[in-house]
Design brief:
Strands 12, 13, 14, 15, 16, 17 and 18 form a seven-stranded antiparallel β-sheet that branches. A six-stranded antiparallel β-sheet has the order 1-11-10-9-6-7, with no helix packed on it. The longest helix is centred in the first third of the chain and has 42 residues, at 2-43. Helices cover 16% and strands 35% of the residues. The protein folds into two domains: 51-153, Tumour Suppressor Smad4; 162-283, no CATH class. The radius of gyration is 24 Å and the shape is elongated. With 299 residues, the chain is α+β, with helices and mostly antiparallel strands.
């Protein structure tokens, strides 16, 4: 009888080990799929790898093109006229006025010699101008307005070889509780430009690692929580300014999952033309989070 019990126990252990191996493999596959989609997003037209310029506007007319005499000088060799026209910032709006025969389009329609609004504070849609492989639009950061320039043939796209990562590990997939009581509904977030804004807070995500509880401020992003955090790997293996992470909003009990295997680099890791938010000081963890993306060494 004892021998039978030992055999049965061994069978249970084998089955359990097999089940765990299958679950681990399935989880690793899901992280691989998530990362593949993340990489493809970086390569898209609205991704971060094709940024080649960020130009802050001055009030009034801002002449642009590749000629050095312009107020805004596009990169040398760009497929656009030397003097391509101007954008005018006045009364909270920005208007594009292309030069004759510039070949510029706006939302895929010819914009030659037509004055067109490319930024209005009351519009949710930002038009995209184009010339050859170039794409540009207006961005607003506090009181600053600027041109964000992309090149669909950017060198960074051709040289991109992927992002190094830590191996997927279920130990970094943690149950978390969203704590909302007693915390402010807005928290200060500073970006790389030094601008500070109050952002909508969802509360603090509390989770346990090796018996110790940690908390991270989470921003409310509609159907998800957004976390900007720093940890002890930033000085060695991960991006120095910290990483980003999305978390599913909690269920009725306040529980959710924080999966550090999905921690990823901010846009500033890939380009100097992004305006990334920085982790609030409360979100600097005193431990190493050896999960997710490592730093992108090319930039």
């Amino acid at each position: 009888m004892k021998g039978i019990r030992i055999i049965l126990l061994a069978m249970v252990l084998v089955v359990s080990a097999g089940t765990y191996a299958q679950e681990a493999a399935g989880y690793a596959g899901s992280i691989e799929q998530w990362h593949s989609e993340r990489v493809e997003g970086l390569k898209k037209e609205n991704g971060w790898l094709n940024l080649v310029g960020l130009y802050w506007l001055k009030p009034g007319k801002n002449y642009f093109g590749t000629d050095a005499s312009n107020d805004i000088v596009f990169p040398k060799g760009s497929p656009i006229a030397a003097k391509a026209g101007y954008v005018e910032w006045e009364d909270h709006m920005v208007v594009l006025v292309p030069a004759e025969n510039s070949g510029i389009t706006l939302n895929k329609r010819s914009a030659d010699r037509m004055a067109s609004i490319v930024y209005h504070p009351d519009s949710a849609r930002v038009p995209v101008a184009a010339a050859g492989s170039l794409r540009w639009s207006i961005i607003k950061r506090d009181e600053k307005l600027g041109i964000r320039l992309r090149d669909l043939n950017a060198a960074a796209l051709a040289s991109f070889k992927g992002i190094e990562r830590y191996p997927a590990d279920t130990r970094w997939k943690l149950e978390a509780t969203l704590q909302t009581s007693g915390f402010p509904d807005r928290i200060s977030i500073t970006n790389v430009l030094g601008q500070t804004n109050l952002q909508k807070s969802a509360g603090k995500l509390a989770f346990t690692i090796d018996g110790r509880t940690y908390r991270l401020d989470a921003l409310d992003e509609g159907d998800q929580l957004f976390v900007i955090f720093a940890d002890q790997t930033n000085s060695t293996e991960t991006y120095p300014s910290g990483r980003f992470l999305y978390v599913t909003k909690p269920d009725a009990s306040g529980k959710t999952i924080i999966d550090f295997n999905k921690a990823y680099n901010p846009p500033c890791a890939f380009t100097e033309y992004a305006t990334c938010p920085l982790p609030p000081k409360e979100n600097s963890l005193p431990i190493s989070i050896t999960a997710g993306e490592k730093k992108y060494d090319t930039h």
